[in-house]
Protein: Aminoglycoside phosphotransferase
Amino acid sequence: MNPAADSVSPAAPTSPAPSSEVTWTDPARHAAFDAWLAGVAAQQGLDPATLRPASADASFRRYLRLDAREAGQPSRIVMDAPPSHEDCRPFVQVAGLLGGAGLAAPQVLAWDEAQGFMLLSDLGDRTYLAELQSLDLSGGAGLRRADGLYRDAIDTLVRLQRIDATAAVPAYDRALMQRELDLFPEWYVARHRGATLTDREREQLARCFDLILKTCLAQPAVLVHRDYHSRNLMLPLGGPGELAEGSGPGILDFQDAVAGPASYDLVSLLRDAYIEWDEAIQIDWAARYWERARKAGVPVADDFGSFWRDYEWMGLQRHLKVLGIFARLSHRDGKDGYLKDLPLVWRYAHHVAMRYSVLTPLARLLERLEDVRARDGYTF
Structure:
């Protein structure tokens, strides 16, 4: 299975590094890249000697940055995506959809489809996550800054969801959601925790999965980014290196977009695997989103309580999937950096399973896997 198909985000962009840090394991691909880059650099006025890593990725893609020859001109991003492992056509298609709606997505400036090399506009190197981690979020100016960022992200999300793309992207159907849920018992339960489910636990898990899928699939479909969170949202740029306050974030890693539930991207944003917000803050932002979505004609529930339930169950599907993906990235792909994020994702999943009585068997299974006992919780 293509790792990109599971919609896992890249790591935050790295700081500039010498071009010598761009390494290659395939000499033939290295030679092909150099030949392609020489031609593109000449056409675009770029300096190949400034080539350096821009970000790591959970898939086979990688991103490189290089500067313009002329001072004051914008830098560019190169995507290296081997065609044997990556299909760049969805990226190009969704980039066009987002750009056509006036959203800040990378513009495709050059593309060698046969070889998997692409030149993109550069949205900068400051992610939402990096900005949030630099703030004092205990209150005051830091929390006000975070609130402004999330309001911008919510407003941008509503604009994204108004794009009519149901015929242009795959459906987030039951089969896809089920394949994602199946990553949880295969990779998190069996491989990461080394546990074997009893027959009763397997039956209970299957029933919980069925309830989750029915609840999620009952929501009307909109364009879904699938990884709309702090690592894939960039601080907006005004002039060179200047922040454009109040404008929408730059949007990355959208190639796995689908047509699916409206609550998916919001829960990706507010119950992010990399930063945790109190539920009271989540509810405040979710209510803002819900009000704006309804006014914009996005098909969300008429009652906020019903929408919040949709949000929680959609989040549960996502977080069970992410537990499986992060475990797989470690055990199959040797990318252990994602393991540090498992405890927060586990808490998200357990929180929802504890809240709804029909999901109690799932909550108990999560507790057994981590050898913890629930101390509190309430159900509806």
In short: The chain has eleven helices and nine strands.
